[in-house]
Design brief:
This protein is of the alpha/beta class. It is built from eight helices and eleven strands. The strands form three sheets. Strands 5, 6, 7, 8, 9, 10 and 11 form a seven-stranded mixed sheet that branches. It has a two-stranded parallel ribbon with strand order 1-4. Helix 2 packs across helix 7. The radius of gyration is 21 Å and the shape is globular. The N terminus is likely disordered.
């Protein structure tokens, strides 16, 4: 009887672990094509597709936790989040010893963007206001800011940064390539924003919590399989 009770207890624990939702962090300032956020819920975009497919392959239900950017790392430290994606080690302030890094899944190409075909790079700026996303850290831009050769003109998300550039609030802005491509899709060729120069390219991964009730192996394996199969590239192609 005691052995049966132990077996039943173990089976219940396994079932609970299998049924436990997979909690993904969603930054409330994300915009398309990364994420469509409607009424406080993630409903579409690149990361929505990545999250739902990862959860499906890991045999879990996805749950999306919408958070301000400044609160994401605290949520990780308190284990409120199982998976944080679209991140690089250089972008984090803590080492997160309870989390494991996935393989690199995609590359973010950061660009200096302009109107009217203007060229230039960060080093040639002088007295310029640069369009940036509120709360984002730009390592290559920081020395320029520190030397007072440029200032930041911030907007809540990447789409708003590009809209302000479009209407002439400033001459240059920083944008990821995929956000720029998405923004330009709806514009006539002669009105599209252009690349002034390439700033840097950063491989992006996911951080996955490794704990007894949320073993990381299944999630990391799912992410690696999505990358190896070309599924992530297929998702990205929807938004180019």
């Amino acid at each position: 009887m005691r052995l049966l009770a132990i077996v039943l207890l173990f089976s219940s624990a396994v079932t609970l672990a299998e049924d436990r939702p997979l909690r993904f962090s969603v930054v409330d300032s994300w915009a398309m094509p990364l994420a469509r956020i409607e009424d406080g819920r993630l409903t579409g975009g690149i990361l929505y597709e990545l999250f739902t497919e990862t959860a499906r392959q890991a045999h879990r239900e996805p749950v999306f936790h919408l958070l301000p950017r400044a609160r994401v790392e605290q949520a990780l430290l308190s284990h409120q989040i199982d998976v944080r994606c679209y991140v690089a080690p250089a972008w984090t302030e803590h080492e997160f010893h309870d989390y494991r890094w996935s393989v690199p899944l995609m590359t973010q190409r950061d660009l200096l963007v302009s109107r009217d075909g203007l060229k230039g790079d960060l080093q040639s700026l002088s007295g310029q206001a640069i369009g940036t996303v509120l709360g984002y850290h730009y390592p290559r831009l920081q020395p320029v800011l520190d030397s007072d050769r440029a200032t930041r003109d911030e907007a809540r998300n990447q789409e708003l940064v590009l809209k302000k550039l479009q209407i002439g609030r400033y001459q240059y802005a920083i944008s990821s390539e995929i956000a720029l491509d998405w923004f330009n899709r709806a514009l006539p060729q002669n009105q599209r924003l252009t690349i002034a120069s390439i700033i840097e390219e950063t491989p992006l991964s996911c951080l996955v919590l490794d704990s007894p009730d949320a073993p990381a192996d299944e999630v990391l394996s799912a992410l690696a399989a999505l990358k190896a199969s070309g599924e992530i590239e297929r998702i990205l192609s929807h938004y180019r």
